[in-house]
Write a structure and sequence with these properties.
single chain; alpha/beta; Rossmann fold; Tyrosyl-Transfer RNA Synthetase; Structural Genomics Hypothetical 15.5 Kd Protein In mrcA-pckA Intergenic Region, Chain A; 3 domains; two-stranded parallel sheet; 13 helices
């Protein structure tokens, strides 16, 4: 469902009269998220109105679809409870809230779609290979917890995998990446992602399972600059970012570091391709058709 379908039809005066009148500023500021924003330097009217909008969503779903339970992360506890309370005030009926602890890294950072580097279950947003790499690059301190939460391995195996060091810990991370990818995308995709990662790590030939982008040959007649090539591959956001990374030795073509920011490349003959890398964690195979 898209809450824009009903929110965009609201009349501001009527909404503030019918819904806004049921909230007090004191009640909103008792919620930790809003109090913290205010103490940190300010709270906009838009931010304060968020609880009204989310509460109205719950009320609308209750009235139109008999929804009596809202499920969310623990950071949404205050907004969710406000919605259940709004339902009680408007209808004199009960509604309920269920929240789960947020998924945090060992550094206390939230794992979610609003965070930088978010991982998506949709393969169109995060490819199976990138999904695999996300878990393969897990911090050491998170391995045991993630194995327990995101795989179906027996807990005894989880504990044995987590209490290792050095190369064995890397194998534990590979197991985490494989099992988590298998759950989300199936065993075939997990095997392909693991094989692609091993190929790239070893610097071997191949890499058919690495994410691939195609560039029409007619677009690169006369050559293409390395900065534009990496931008086309989605490994950099701009030519300036590409030049900066080249200066730091962070971009690679077929395993060789790019050193000349002005270099131009001709597409390989026949079915040849370029294997582009940004550091050791992000890769893209570029084919020309």
């Amino acid at each position: 469902m898209d809450n824009g379908e009903w929110l965009r039809q609201l009349n501001l005066v009527e909404f503030m009269r019918d819904i806004g009148s049921r909230f007090s500023v004191n009640e909103v500021l008792r919620l930790e998220a809003y109090r913290a924003r205010l103490e940190a330097g300010g709270l906009t009217f838009l931010e304060m109105s968020y609880v009204l909008m989310q509460s109205y969503d719950f009320l609308h779903l209750y009235q139109k679809h008999e929804c009596i339970l809202q499920v969310g992360g623990s950071d949404q506890w205050g907004n969710s409870i406000a919605g259940a309370d709004l339902i009680r005030r408007v209808t004199s009926r009960e509604a309920y809230v269920l929240v789960a602890p947020l998924l945090l890294t060992s550094e206390g950072k939230k794992m979610g779609k609003t965070e930088k580097g978010a991982v998506w279950l949709d393969s169109q947003r995060t490819s199976p290979y990138d999904y695999y790499q996300y878990w393969r690059n897990t911090d050491d301190g998170d391995v045991e917890r993630y194995l327990a939460m995101f795989t179906f391995l027996p807990i005894d195996e989880v504990r044995s995998l987590a209490h290792v060091e050095g190369a064995e810990l890397n194998r534990a991370k590979e197991t985490l990446a494989f099992e988590a990818t298998k759950v989300a995308h199936g065993e075939e995709q997990a095997i392909g992602a693991r094989n692609a990662a091993r190929v790239l790590f070893a610097g071997a030939e191949g890499g058919a399972d690495v994410p691939t982008t195609a560039i029409p040959r007619e677009r690169v007649e006369g050559g293409i600059s390395v900065s534009e090539l990496f931008k086309e591959a989605g490994l950099v956001a701009s030519a300036n970012e590409a030049r900066s990374l080249i200066g730091q030795g962070g971009l690679f073509i077929n395993g060789e570091a790019v050193s000349d920011v002005r270099a131009r490349l001709e597409p390989p003959d026949g079915d040849g391709d370029f294997m582009l890398s940004r550091g050791r964690k992000r890769h893209m195979r570029v084919v020309f058709r």
